[in-house]
Amino acid sequence: MIRRPTNHLLSNMNRRKMLKLSGATAAGLGANMMMPNSAYAADGGDIAFWGTGTLDIGDMWDQANKDAGLNVSFIDNGNDPGPIVARLVAGNANAIYDVSGLQGGAERELAQQGAIAPWDVSKIPNYDKVWQWAKDIPFLYNEGKQYGLPGVVNADSIIYRKDKLGIVDSYGVIFDKKLKGRVAMEDAWINSAIFTAMYLKESENADIKEPGNLSESELGLVMEFLIKHKVDGQFRTFWNGWEQGVQLIADEEVDAMTGWEPIVLEGQKRGLDVAYAEPIEGYEGWGNNLLLHSGAVERGLSDAAHEFANWIYGGFYGAQLSLSRGYVVPSDLNVEYAKAHSDIINADKVAEVTEHVRNKFSGKIYWQNTRPDNFQLYEQWWQRLRNA
Hints:
By secondary structure, this protein is an alpha/beta fold. The protein has helices at residues 8-24, 26-29, 62-68, 81-89, 93-96, 107-112, 132-135, 162-165, 189-203, 216-231, 242-250, 261-269, 294-298, 302-312, 316-325, 333-340, 347-361, 375-387, and strands at residues 46-51, 71-76, 99-103, 116-117, 141-142, 145-146, 149-161, 183-186, 235-239, 256-259, 274-276, 283-293, 365-367. Strand 1, helix 3 (62-68) and strand 2 (71-76) form a beta-alpha-beta unit.
């Protein structure tokens, strides 16, 4: 079990010291952990949000202070569920951070370990406007309690150079020998294994039931396929993290790669003719869920965390994230907020992104799962791939 301080004031003071230390040692930890000055403001209103880098809205977190009196500090957690879960259960993350933004699937394990606490959605009025299908995502619940909130949703596929490849509509482009050395995948089985499984199932008729939860034999088939292609020199690299993903496109090192839609938007901002594929095999659907840390509850920050979640669903954050990342907070309030503030927010663009994501989920979707039944075997296979 996690050892947590019992004195709320002492806990918050120690946490600030740890946050400052985290900021000073960010390079050594391999994540962008620099903190805004507001992270050390008044007691009770601070929320340290430890999330995937693409959830960050930069200096616009100040809006949470204006709207709800919350001083929010954002810290990139690196997006790799293994280290994140380990730090929440056995490391110092529960002592430092209050709310996580983590790809869905780890809720059950974290709840059973006592690392996260259930949400009380009655304290989140804006949750009423969350889309029902997002509320029904099974990863959110454990033993009848809600441990995850569907914070952000999207569905991933392939980033590609349209000017070089024309229209791409299959994950087969990643394994096309004609593009040897000009393709890449992410160095994370939570994405790359499922993309490969989807391709083998849908386009190569492999006997795979659920690409997001592979059996031992199915996983072996998928990973041997990937290892063979790696050894053959098919991949330019297995990229890691938002910045490297963007750089691969910006430096024109690859013509196609599996990855995140915000990388496409960033490439387009830089004047590159990049596009996001609509694969015949379907999309990899995912939800980046909000998790309430047990340490935050013991520090007396449960109410502040619920207010933070309510603010996330209030419209401002969702509208900004749609414009900057192409992601959607699954709520109608984003468009409503944008329309009410159309003098400063491009309401038409927010509506367009929202409809774009809705359309993805109306088609073929295989859900990402950060904790499949054989996740330890996934880890072993992925290390074997890295060493190949």
